[in-house]
Design a protein that fits this description.
This protein has 16 helices and 24 strands. The protein is α/β, with parallel strands linked by helices and 498 residues long. It has two domains: 229 residues, Rossmann fold (3-Layer(aba) Sandwich); 255 residues, Rossmann fold. Strands 14, 15, 16, 17, 18, 19, 20, 21, 22, 23 and 24 form an eleven-stranded mixed beta sheet that branches. A nine-stranded mixed beta sheet has the order 5-4-6-7-3-8-9-10-11, sandwiched between helices. Strand 4, helix 3 and strand 5 form a beta-alpha-beta unit. The longest helix has 19 residues. The radius of gyration is 30 Å and the shape is elongated. It starts with 6 loop residues before the first strand and ends with a helix.
Length: 498
């Protein structure tokens, strides 16, 4: 049986995860991306990872000066002036002066030969284990002929192989139609891409187009380029994360709501709270989280709409004091900007909370704002499906909030996720006795035998209050609801309007 090929870490944990351990050693890899996608930073990551293991590294730069490259490293808090690392500026300022103009510019074949020979001589002298070649666009321009360019790249590839180098060749895609010839030569190809939207931060993602001899996670993987380097978020594949858990119903903290749900919220299921603005969806979710915290479970709340400055005081006013759990770390409350966070980054945060922090309850509030972080509705459905499947398989109880358009919720939804939900709780306004009141009903449950009745619902000093089942409703499902029955309402007992 053949021994596994030794791997070479890229220095980026997420990319190593996508490659299932890193790059096979001793081969040439092509990293393609337009300017600004992070190729240079990735190359520095690669060399620093080797230096941490005692491996020598060489950064061959044709497009940037050594000073510029070191400035990029320093912006991330890195130092290239350390033993075993060298930045080789292939074309020095002296070579670009007036005295060297004739030998530098013409003929192209001489220039290319000098470039390749210079690289080979430096590698033969330094014997590096890792090499970054930045960038191929200059070599392509020097060659001026595809055949000559391919021959020289092949010569470099065989030279690197003889010296047991693992090489990253960076290409800024200056060729009009992509370099298919070079892609066939390289042992692996990774594409770095940048999506420029009309508003918010640019979204970056990478794709492994080819990698010989090893398995890897295909598809698009989000990454961010920030101070400290690149952070890659591997695409979530729910089937890889199944975990055994006990099937059980957990209380929402309200006996009447538990009864309507058929016993409570099921472990390893997701519940969708749907209704218009201000009807109480978020407060109900907070009540469910408070009940979980009282049981000693860890919870995470991802807030896309409301700020922390309003959510916490409102919860306390209704009797749900979650600050102690927040201070102790039992409860994680994150206010996220949908214009800045990517779907892959969000999924990675959720996964970290579940696997590292032991979170058993997750709330996403709201899906409407989360949609704004997506390039299109198709991707929202696919990625949310994978995330919900992952959470279900890990035994996590998930609550999602989805707002309807308009104050009374007569409009359509931004996206219909009801088919992905294991349970759906519908909130509605209704009119009765000259007051605008609220109603709640459970319209779907895959895990429990839920009630089909409609109940009055309100928020008071004691938190969520749910009345007895009301009959004689008209137009609840259509959104223009009136109640003309004689059953006592919650407000009848105290004479207060809800």
């Amino acid at each position: 049986m053949a021994l596994p090929t030794p791997r070479c870490s890229t220095g980026i944990s997420g990319l190593d995860d996508i490659l299932q351990g890193g790059l096979p050693q001793g081969h040439l890899y092509l990293f393609e991306g337009e300017p600004g996608t992070g190729k240079t930073t990735l190359g520095i990551h690669f060399l620093l990872a080797g230096a941490a293991l005692g491996e020598t590294g060489l950064y061959v730069t044709l497009s940037e000066t050594a000073a510029e490259l070191k400035a990029v490293a320093e912006s991330h808090g890195w130092q290239l002036d350390q033993p075993g690392l060298e930045v080789f500026e292939l074309v020095s300022p002296e070579q670009l002066g007036p005295d060297a103009e004739q030998s530098i510019i013409h003929p192209a074949e001489m220039e290319l030969n000098q470039t390749v020979q210079g690289v080979m001589a430096r590698i033969a002298a330094r014997r590096p284990r890792r090499v970054v070649f930045d960038s191929l666009s200059e070599m392509r321009l020097l060659a001026q002929d595809p055949l000559r360019y391919r021959r020289q790249v092949l010569a470099l590839k065989h030279f690197f192989a003889r010296h047991d180098c693992t090489v990253l060749m960076l290409d800024d895609l200056s060729a009009a139609t992509g370099d298919m010839q070079l892609r066939s030569i390289a042992h692996g190809v990774v594409w770095l891409q940048q999506l420029v939207g009309e508003y918010g931060a640019d979204k970056r993602f990478l794709r492994v187009a080819k990698m010989r001899g090893i398995g890897f996670r295909s598809g698009e993987h989000d990454f961010v380029l920030q101070t400290g380097g690149i952070q890659v978020f591997p695409r979530l594949i729910a089937a890889e994360h199944h975990k055994h858990f006990i099937l059980e119903n957990m209380s929402t903290g309200n006996a009447a709501l538990d009864e309507a749900l058929g016993g409570g919220l099921a472990r390893g299921s997701n519940t969708l709270f749907v209704g218009p603005s201000g009807v109480g969806k978020t407060t109900t979710a907070v009540a469910c989280v408070h009940a979980a915290l009282q049981r000693g479970e860890n919870a995470a709340y991802y807030l896309f709409d409301e700020g922390l400055g309003t959510l916490l005081p409102r919860a306390e006013a209704l009797g749900y004091d979650i600050r102690p759990a927040l201070d102790s770390g039992q409860f994680a409350l994150s206010a996220l900007d949908p214009a800045e966070v990517t779907p892959g980054e969000f999924a990675a945060r959720v996964r970290q909370a579940v696997e590292q922090d032991g979170v058993r309850v997750v709330v996403i509030d709201s899906l409407n704002a989360y949609l704004q972080a997506m390039p299109g509705g198709k991707f929202l459905i696919l990625q949310m499906h994978e995330l919900l499947t992952y959470l279900n398989q890990r035994g996590v109880m998930t609550l999602m909030v989805l707002g309807q358009h308009g104050i009374l919720g007569h409009g359509k939804l931004d996206v219909d996720l009801s088919y992905l939900s294991d349970a759906v709780v519908l909130f509605r306004y209704f009119e009765a006795r000259g007051n605008l009141l609220k109603a709640v009903s459970v319209t779907k449950s895959r895990t429990n035998r839920h009630a089909n009745s409609i109940h009055e619902f309100r928020l008071g000093e004691r938190g969520v209050e749910i009345g007895v089942a009301l009959t004689d409703f008209e137009g609840v499902v259509s959104g223009v609801a009136r109640y003309t029955g004689d059953i006592a309402l919650l407000s009848d007992a105290d004479g207060r309007d809800t």
